[in-house]
């Protein structure tokens, strides 16, 4: 977690800025804190979120938006 203060891991929704759901409630919750992005699976709200630098998160988003879902 890079020693940074992350959004709450006890199921609280504080700091969540964005959520995206796929099929059957497969949701990703994302919070932005200064220059870090935290992401977690909404099915596991008590789990610690993963942390990414803003640069790494941007690269991740670019990569996944280029993927052809039919080619997987």
Summarize the structure.
By secondary structure, the protein is of the alpha+beta class. Helix content is 18%, strand content 32%.
Q: Give the number of DSSP strands.
A: 4
Estimate the global geometry from the Cα principal axes.
flat
Give the integer mean of the pLDDT values. 74
| Portion in strands | 25-35%
Low-pLDDT residue spans:
1-6, 9-13
Strand order of the largest sheet: 1-2-3-4
* Structural class by SSE content: alpha+beta
**Strand-and-helix sequence, N→C?**
EEEEH
- Helical amount: 10-25%
Distance between the termini: 30 Å
Task: Describe the protein.
- The radius of gyration is 13 Å and the shape is flat.
- Strands 1-2-3-4 form a 4-stranded antiparallel beta sheet.
- It has one domain.
- By secondary structure, it is an alpha+beta fold.
- The protein is 18% helix and 32% strand.
Write the layout of secondary structure elements.
Blueprint: E1 16-21, E2 27-33, E3 36-41, E4 50-53, H1 54-66
Antiparallel strand pairs: 1-2, 2-3, 3-4
Question: Which tags fit this structure?
Answer:
72 residues, alpha+beta, four-stranded antiparallel β-sheet, 4 strands, 18% helix, 32% strand, flat, disordered N terminus, DUF397, DUF397 domain-containing protein
């Amino acid at each position: 977690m890079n020693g940074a203060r992350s959004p709450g891991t006890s199921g609280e929704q504080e700091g969540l800025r964005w959520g995206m759901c796929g099929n059957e409630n497969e949701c990703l919750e994302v919070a932005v804190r200064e220059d870090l992005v935290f992401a977690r699976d909404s099915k596991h709200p008590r789990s610690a979120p993963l942390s990414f630098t803003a640069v790494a998160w941007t690269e991740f988003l670019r990569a996944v938006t280029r993927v052809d879902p039919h080619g997987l």
